[in-house]
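Collaborator request, handled under Task 6.
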Amino acid sequence: MSASRRGHSERLMADWMAPGRSQWHRVAMSSHVKSLILARLITTPDWIRRDLSSKDEPLRNRTEEALAAIIEAVITEQPIN
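Structure tokens returned to the collaborator:
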């Protein structure tokens, strides 16, 4: 993975986890789980990336649900400490 792509993904994760941006800052996650989520987001299919920026709201909503399911799968596969 290129350094620029990794840097972009790290900024995305930081934005998603920032207070006031979402509920992520309230979730206590280990650094291991965070790195697993980041690794999965980096390999997100192009259609998800493209459809998240769509002006078609139903399409964007379905894509957001698909991305949430991907993240949920990463989280639920991890044991709770």
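The cover message to the collaborator said: "The two ends are 30 Å apart (CA to CA). The CA atoms of residues 63 and 69 lie 10 Å apart. Please let us know whether this matches your experimental observations."
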